[in-house]
Amino acid sequence: MRRGRDAAPHGQGGHVMTAAIVADGVRKRYGDIQAVDGVSLHIEAGEFYGILGPNGAGKTTTLEILEGVREPDEGRIELFGKSPWPRNHELLTRIGVQFQASSFFDKLTTRETIRLFASFHRLGARQADAMLARVGLTDFGSVPADKLSGGQAQRLSIACGLVHDPEIVFLDEPTAGLDPQARRNLWDLLRDVNQEGRTVVLTTHYLDEAEILCDRVSVMEHGKVLKTGAPAALIRELDDMVRVSVESGLVAPDVLRGLLESAGVDNTIVEDDEVSLTVATHTPGPVLSILADQGALRGLEVRGATLEDVFLQLTGREYRA
């Protein structure tokens, strides 16, 4: 059974599991840019682990160093106690990688592509075709790989990284640019991959994705890890206000502020953007009661803090190119 999102990763009997990935004081510089600045991670075997951050935070470079694709300037990296750099051929059979951008051979079909990747690991057509079925692409086996839709191409890319049955799977923004249905289909696949016992490490810009899928996350900014923890635990630490929203125009903001003050409801923020009237509060009960008395419940939405609120508090709200 899969552990809950709050649970620390443990093995049987409460003993801490063996680390699948350890990074200690990792740094990487490109000219004047410090892409990774002292990153330390401890990822347990079987964890679903997310690396989050705005553009330029160092997520992809960190992932590539963990994969053994890039050499760090400083620091220690171990996968199952072994260094991935220089390229460790013993580890290559134990890790699977899906890169941020998928690029397939122009002349190969989907089936030929997965069989080619299987051959790199001395696997036959049977294993390759079984993986194609696993990701729901059997019916597209004769389609040129470069003609697949975005979601299909991402599934093929993940299949190529899984065909040799790795113990660790690295995924760099696997659902970027996909429509909601394709994203959720990939979520189901990734959950299955993790529930089979594999360690999954992904970078993502989608905070709802990380909150749903990940056991723990690390939030990065300017090459540093700012915070690490289970999504639910990070949200609780935030102690953010609950937001109660209704349709704008049902009650005037000044009137509502007066009613809240008269009722002794302190520390509230009332905002009206002419679409929604929103009250941020630590005591939503009295706010709901007052809105109900005013007959102002149309379009009611009550939202607690999310991982997005944690992310924005840590990294700020300014635009990132």
TrEMBL record:
GO terms for cellular component: plasma membrane. InterPro entries: AAA+_ATPase (IPR003593), ABC_transporter-like_ATP-bd (IPR003439), ABC_transporter-like_CS (IPR017871), ABC_transporter_ATP-binding (IPR050763), P-loop_NTPase (IPR027417). It is found in: Cell membrane. One of its GO terms (biological process) is response to antibiotic. PROSITE patterns: ABC_TRANSPORTER_1, ABC_TRANSPORTER_2. It is an enzyme of class 7 (translocase). Residues 21-247 form the ABC transporter domain. It is a peripheral membrane protein. The keyword Glycosyltransferase does not apply. One of its GO terms (molecular function) is ABC-type xenobiotic transporter activity. Transmembrane segments: none annotated. Keywords: Antibiotic resistance, ATP-binding, Cell membrane, Membrane, Nucleotide-binding, Translocase, Transport. Its EC number is 7.6.2.2. Pfam families: ABC_tran. It comes from the Bacteria. Belongs to the ABC transporter superfamily. Drug exporter-1 (DrugE1) (TC 3.A.1.105) family. This is ABC-type xenobiotic transporter.
